[in-house]
Amino acid sequence: MRTLADWSRQIDAVLRSGLRGSTLAPVLGASEAERVAYARGFTDDFGHRRAVDLPLLTWVLHIPRQPGPRADRIDVALWESLLDPDGDATSTLRTPDGPVAPDVREHGIEVWTEVELASLQALWWHAHSAADHQPRDRALSLARWLMAELQPDNGTNRPWAVATFAELAAGGDVDAAMYADTLLHNCQVQAGRADRFSCVLLLDAANRLAALSG
Question: What is the pTM of this model?
Answer without folding.
Answer: 0.96
